[in-house]
Amino acid sequence: xxxxxxxxxxxxxxxxxxxxxxxxxxxxxxxxxxxxxxxxxxxxxxxxxxxxxxxxxxxxxxxxxxxxxxxxxxxxxxxxxxxxxxxxxxxxxxxxxxxxxxxxxxxxxxxxxxxxxxxxxxxxxxxxxxxxxxxxxxxxxxxxxxxxxxxxxxxxxxxxxxxxxxxxxxxxxxxxxxxxxxxxxxxxxxxxxxxxxxxxxxxxxxxxxxxxxxxxxxxxxxxxxxxxxxx
Length: 231
Ligand SMILES: [Zn+2]
Fold this sequence. Notes:
By secondary structure, the chain is α/β, with parallel strands linked by helices. It has helices at 11-16, 18-24, 37-49, 74-85, 112-128, 146-154, 189-192, 222-230; strands at 3-10, 53-65, 89-96, 135-139, 158-163, 183-184, 199-202, 209-212. Zinc ion binds at residues 203, 205-206, 208, 220-221, 223-224.
């Protein structure tokens, strides 16, 4: 029987480490294939175990500025919706008051501790449920979740850490709470880059066929989109 894996993602950390992926490929920017990422990680674990690994779910923890903070969060909300609806992520998003003392990991500012505590709580919860998870794949580097990881291993579950090569001090990796060699996302930069396929699609409005890279549910051709915009 396949080993059951749950992927736990520190969303803020994943966002910050994109730059390591870009520089690995000598690019300034590119889109990350978020649908592919959990499967890519499961494949690596399967190779390490020499056993099949099935992805049970992907838990994603992120923050968003509260209404009080006065930021336009439309883009960020759309991104979280995309992760939940198109990539099948199980998202937990926490509203934070931004402004003053956002820097640094200490304290409760910026939502760092909320992400750590939520991620740690879910790790232990799924580890304690019978028959749900054999392997926890943790994407992030906060040393604060190490006690939770220790408990997960006490419960007989294996832990795969996912990080990037960096010069940062006191990372989670330094505490060595893992069962496999770490996966470094920058080593997978090329595979994580989203390649958009060009396909022919039928316009929902006028029925004309056009080549597009748009993968969303409804497709409208260039002309109909233009008409919509000018109306
Ligand atoms: Zn059309």
